[in-house]
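seq:
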Amino acid sequence: MTSVQRLLVVGAHAADFVWRAGGVIALVTANGGEAIVLALSYGERGESGELWKEPGQTVERVKAIRHEQAERAAHLLRARFVSFDLGDYPLEVDREATERLAQLIRDFRPDAIVTHTPIDPFNPDHPVANQAVQQARLLSSGAGVASAFETIEPPPLYYFEPHQPELCGFVPNVFVDITPVFEKKVAAMQVMASQQYLQHYYAELAERRANHARRISGAKDIRYAEAFQRVTPLVVRALLGHG
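struct:
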C-alpha cells in the first residue's frame, strides 16, 4: 500500500473540510501530494451566524466572504478550493451537479475521497452531500461494469468525523497522526471567522483522538489525530501488521 497522493474532500458547506479533515489535507500536501476541497455550497444560510449579525448583510456578500475565507484556509493547507454554489438548508444536488461531480472525480483521479456520514440528525445537508458523493463515485468508476463513458479505478471512500459521532452511526476505524501539521490546521481554522465557536471544539477533539490513537497503536509521540471511517473494504495481498 502507498500513501494518498491525490485527495478529494467533499463538504456540504465551505468550512466542513477545515474542521474535519484539515490535518489529513495538510499531511498529503506536505508530502508532495495534491488535494482538492470541494464545497457543494457556501453554507451562506445556515453556517454563517457570525456574518449575519452585521447590519445590512446580504446573501451574496456572505457567499463572497465565505469563499474568501475558505480559499485562504485551503491555501494554508496547500489545497485547491472549489465550490459548486448549490445553496444550503436545504442543499439539493440535481443531475447536472451530480454529473459535474462525477467528472471532477474522473479528471482528478483521487486516491481517496472523504465526505460526510450518511446519517446526521442535526444537519439535513450532510446526508445529501454523502448521497451525491456515493452516486458520483459510482458513476465515475462505472459501478464495476463497462460503460459508455470514461471510467477510473474506484477510489476508496472515507467518512470524516461528524459533530456528534454517536448519533450519526460513525465508527472510527482509521486514526491519522496529524501532529506534524497540527499548527497548519489551527491556522486554517482561525481563518474561518464566521464559525469561531468550532475552533476550540475541533482542537480539543484532535487531542482526544490522539489519546485513542496512542492506546491503539502504542505510539506515544502522537499528540493530535483525526478519526475517519473507511467505508470501502481494504483489498490486500496479505494481512497487514504494524504500519
